[in-house]
Amino acid sequence: MIVPQYWAEARVQHKGRRRQITVRRFGWSDASQTEAQAHAERRAWQALEDVRDGEPLARREPRVPYNGAEGVPIREEVVERHGASVITRNAYGARCLNTPDVLFVDIDFQQGPSQRFAQGLFAAIALPALLLGWLLQSATLLAALLCLALFVASVLPERLHGLFLAFHGGAGALARRRVGRFLAAHPEWNLRLYRTPAGMRVLATQRTFASDDPAVAACFAALGADPLYARMCLRQRCFRARLSAKPWRIGIAGRRGLGHWPVAAERLPLRRHWVERYEARAQDYAACRFVESLGSGVIDPAVAAVLRLHDELSGAGSQRPLA
Questions:
Q1: Cα–Cα distance measured from residue 111 to residue 105, given in angstroms and rounded to the nearest whole number
Q2: Where are the domains of the chain?
Q3: CA end-to-end span of the chain, whole Å?
Q4: CB contact at 8 A, 200 and 316
């Protein structure tokens, strides 16, 4: 896991007889802005040489904070450092805990039926309709049956999904059953469960993990981890948990002043004003709420410090509303 303190961008050019090649690359450092700029220059010149040699590289790296980009670490403002763990401010202003080896699992409850299910239902109705229309040689009947199939496929999946959740006690109960099945197969694990506004957060405490550990991939699959989260963990070689509220959930609309980190010096006062307003409102909310601990009961000493930090800063033990 790399979460640099300083960032820079370099731009280099090569003018040939027939074309001009311009390449931009980011650089980073924990030591100084000067070192970050030098790193950016080295990466840019190397990329230019590779492009001139015919490699199909992007001329410019996307200016994004945390998207699992290959070769580029997490690009967010560093708020605090606690040993190997780093607290950053993400693209929409919330504080996030980043840790290289303490396994957090982010589970989003599915609010509606999957698109694949709706498409399959439409096909199951439409194909017989097409066959019937063709056999009867009736274009009018065919059109009517296809309209009926489209209507049913747009309404029925939502109803069926609701009935499915109700029958199983809700999305939370389904997630809890997945956790139970996983622990039955892995009795040495200990999992702490937290409720989030849109799902569940799970923290494994019995030992530490590298993000590319096969046990992590198996855990993600078994618990139904958010696919984007799982992919970013692997690429950024870390695990991550949001510690403060999403701004739109606490009445702060828009992100004017935040910008992509690092922001220009002239925009820093505007950013500071936004952050102060956000933090004043966010202190009345929690990012998650502790529900229960299941499994072996083992808490590795290396995990314990991160656990305490997470629970304190996320408000997991408070009665504040979730946001």
A1: 18
A2: 6-61, 80-110+170-314, 115-167
A3: 27
A4: no
For 82, the 3-state DSSP assignment is: strand
One digit per residue, pLDDT tens: the chain, 323 residues? Answer: 889 999 999 999 988 777 888 999 999 999 999 999 999 999 999 999 998 888 888 888 877 766 555 568 888 999 999 999 999 999 899 999 999 999 999 998 866 555 666 666 666 666 776 676 667 777 776 677 677 767 666 666 666 555 555 555 566 678 899 999 999 999 999 999 999 999 999 999 999 999 999 999 999 999 999 998 999 899 889 999 999 999 999 999 877 668 788 888 898 999 999 999 999 999 999 999 999 999 999 999 999 999 999 999 999 999 999 99
Residues 24, 61 contacting (CB under 8 angstroms)? yes
Structure tokens given for 287: 């990012």
Q: Is the dihedral of CA 164, 169, 171, 175 positive or negative?
A: negative
Q: 8 — phi, psi (to 5°)? A: -150, 165
Please provide residue 86's backbone torsions phi and psi, each rounded to the nearest 5 degrees. Answer: -130, 135
Contact indicator for 29, 39 with CB cutoff of 8 Å: yes
